[in-house]
TrEMBL record:
InterPro entries: ACOT13 (IPR039298), HotDog_dom_sf (IPR029069), PAAI_dom (IPR003736), Thioestr_dom (IPR006683)
PANTHER family linked: ACYL-COENZYME A THIOESTERASE 13, THIOESTERASE SUPERFAMILY MEMBER-RELATED
Record lineage: Bacteria, Pseudomonadati, Pseudomonadota, Gammaproteobacteria, Oceanospirillales
Family stated for the protein in its record: Belongs to the thioesterase PaaI family.
Protein name: PaaI family thioesterase
Organism name: Amphritea pacifica
Superkingdom of this protein's organism: Bacteria
Boundaries of every Thioesterase domain copy: 48-123
Keywords: Hydrolase
Length: 139
């Protein structure tokens, strides 16, 4: 059972990480998972009309942050210690990106999760990301 509701998480993110909204909007939050949507805009694009790698990495990172805090509560200082991304295919032109994070392990000091990114309305995987987060000693 998540510790925070989607409404609580959205309030927390707006207060503590307001710049995060340019990296995606939280659309779902549950037990060990989160979902986000990136409304793709011109500033997310790179030459050639595709979504930039840094935009997809940021979407994955914020999605993992939301999934983790949904489990451990509002721990603002939980931070990324590793992010590995594999770009699988070019995002569909003119479509928003959807991300889903699934937490694989949440320990006392580290958490590991995966994020899958797809273009909205498409089954083909755009990117697959694994992330590790450090959780501060005092919660």
């Amino acid at each position: 059972m998540p510790v925070m509701t989607i409404e609580q998480m959205n309030r927390f993110l707006a207060e503590h990480f307001p710049q995060g909204e340019k990296f995606g909007v939280l659309t779902g939050l549950g037990d060990s998972w989160a979902e986000m949507k990136l409304p793709v805009a011109d500033d997310h694009l790179r030459p050639g009309g595709t979504v930039s790698g840094p935009s997809m990495m940021a979407l994955a990172d914020v999605c993992m942050y939301a999934a983790l805090l949904g489990q451990i509560g509002p721990v603002a200082l939980a931070v990324t210690t590793n992010l590995n991304i594999n770009f699988m295919s070019k995002p569909e032109a003119g479509r928003d990106l959807l991300a889903r994070c699934s937490l694989m392990k949440v320990g006392k000091r580290l958490a590991v999760g995966e994020v899958w990114i797809r273009s909205e309305g498409c089954d083909e995987l755009v990117a697959h990301t694994t992330l590790t987060y450090s959780i501060p000693a005092e919660r």
